[in-house]
Amino acid sequence: MSEAGGADRPATIGDVAAAAGVAASTVSRALNNPGRVNARTRERIEKIAAELNYVPSTQARALSSGRTRTVALLVPDITNPFYFDLIRGTQHQLKAAGYTQLLVDTEESAEVEAEALDRLRTATDGVILTASRLTDDQIIATHRTRPMVTINRNAGTVPTVVIDTPTALRQALDHLLALGHRRLAYLGGPVNSFSNGLRWKTLAEELSARPGLEIVRLGPFAPTMTSGGPAVEAVLNAEATGCIVFNDLIAIGMLERCRARGIDVPGQLSIVGCDDIFGASFCHPPLTTCTAPIERVGQVATTMLLSQINPGLVGRAQSRRSLTLVPTHLTIRSSSGPAPVPVVAERSRDKDRV
């Protein structure tokens, strides 16, 4: 059979319908809802469609079935290695379920994020928001219009996956305390970041259980390596011997600045990051950081979203689940070590030996 579409254009649903001797609506049902068409007719239509190399458009599938088989993943910064494994986790899970992933970089901007959500309203079956910069009211209102899951952002009853960073932060505090550190700094991230607020809240609350330990809040800093230089200056001015940093990108930037200035890490300053991104284990020195199974986070979020899109595919317990915590732990590497001995104490000991 020759291609009805001709050399200049691809075959259309009308071409398939004409060749099969049926209405275009019958072709649509046969290819999108095969259970609604007689088996013999369906097989004939499928055979003709294959011979004509007919490929249904996303728009046509959406019009006939109300589904695009596409899910949008919105991330604040596509260049941040933290999102690499997350993107992989969501994509693998979506592919296995027969969905295509649409990746959107929202550029750390609430305005860009809101505009993207508005434009994607009819182009996707659901949305995964990562570290959203929108307000709670905006997220809740958007969830009313479509299936949605958030990652690291708890807004009302909107289904969410939260990385349990507080557990690893407590371990980080105990680790630095055991190394003799008594004055720490927290290098904060964006002011509208849910994760940033949660991390500072955790650290502040944990001080009461650790007498003799103090921590000063510095920042905010942009969550990029270029913030490492200003962050080092802020820590030195605060006279802290150790610090916990909003994310690994800032922490790695701090390591680079310390090396350029001849500041010994961890001899003069201990640095602990968050996220355990690609590169944290082979920077110089390797970074002590809070570790989470990021790819698993993406998989869990995708499963939660698909349970909204196709409630019949999962159990009732999964459909009702609104919050899932993913565990974390502290990974100790070479960027943290014993607190430096104060210069005054060193001189005192020298005097005693004379």
UniProtKB/TrEMBL annotation:
* PROSITE patterns hit by this protein: HTH_LACI_2
- Protein's recorded name: DNA-binding LacI/PurR family transcriptional regulator
| Record Gene3D superfamilies | 3.40.50.2300, lambda repressor-like DNA-binding domains
Report the domain of life of the source organism: Bacteria
Which residues are in the HTH lacI-type domain?
11-65
Query: Pfam families in the record, alphabetically?
Result: LacI, Peripla_BP_3
The answer on whether this UniProt entry bears the keyword Transmembrane helix reads: no
**CDD domains per the UniProt record, alphabetical:** HTH_LacI
* Keywords of this entry: DNA-binding, Transcription, Transcription regulation
Respond yes or no to whether keyword Transcription regulation is given for this record: yes
InterPro entries with a match to the protein in the record: HTH_LacI, LacI/GalR-like_sensor, Lambda_DNA-bd_dom_sf, Peripla_BP_I
Task: List the residue ranges of the region (Disordered).
Answer: 334-354
Q: What lineage does the source organism belong to?
A: Bacteria, Bacillati, Actinomycetota, Actinomycetes, Propionibacteriales
Q: Name one GO molecular function term.
A: DNA-binding transcription factor activity
